[in-house]
Amino acid sequence: MDTAIDIRPAIAADAGIISRILQRSIRVGCSRDHRNEPARLEAWIRTRSIGHVLPWLADPRLYLNLAHWQGKPAGVGMARDDGRILLCYVQPEWFRRGIARALVAGLERWLTAAGHGTVRLNSTLTAEGFYRHLGYRQTAQSFRVAGFIAIPMHKPLV
């Protein structure tokens, strides 16, 4: 892992920056999914407000990690104790620097420590190639959720 990337568990005081990372990454990096349609975009980012992030940080079933690139907040990942990765987003100016890979590796370590031998996730169209590159494989037909395509994927951890 690049030494310029620092990954640590997120805390409640990080809620504002996590919300901003999520919203900016979705706006800029996920246009393949929201197709720059204002209603679709707003519906997606509305569920990434500080008011939504704070309960995630307080939920003992969830693990959020925060990445810093050269000391600046750069990305966020979240997993659930049932063996699923729920999200991984990076600030647009830090795309393609290994940050998402480092976030996912941290989530996978957390899931391995929790006793999971396989990790599951539902990828967006935007992230599918990234997850395939990390060894994830599609496990079932894609489906629609909230108007977006979700691609069920998994990866053995051991």
Walk me through what this model shows:
By secondary structure, the chain is an alpha+beta fold. The protein has one domain: Gcn5-related N-acetyltransferase (GNAT) (Aminopeptidase). Helix content is 37%, strand content 31%. The chain contains six helices and eight strands. It has helices at residues 15-29, 31-34, 38-46, 50-58, 99-113, 128-133, and strands at 5-9, 62-69, 72-80, 84-90, 118-123, 137-138, 143-145, 148-156. Strands 1, 2, 3, 4, 5, 6, 7 and 8 form an eight-stranded mixed β-sheet that branches. α5 (99-113) links the parallel β4 (84-90) and β5 (118-123). α1 packs antiparallel against α3 and α1 packs across α4. The two termini are 20 Å apart. 31% of the residues are buried. The mean pLDDT is 91. Residues 5-158 form the N-acetyltransferase domain.
Distance between the termini: 20 Å
Element-level helix/strand string: EHHHHEEEHEHEEE
Query: What is the annotated CATH architecture?
Result: 3-Layer(aba) Sandwich
Any idea of the CATH topology?
Answer: Aminopeptidase
Rg (C-alpha, Å): 15 Å
Number of helices: 6
Topology (SSEs and partners):
Elements (H helix, E strand, L loop, with lengths): L4 E5 L5 H15 L1 H4 L3 H9 L3 H9 L3 E8 L2 E9 L3 E7 L8 H15 L4 E6 L4 H6 L3 E2 L4 E3 L2 E9 L2
Parallel strand pairs: 4-5
Antiparallel strand pairs: 1-2, 2-3, 3-4, 5-8, 6-8, 7-8
Helix pairs in contact: 1-3, 1-4
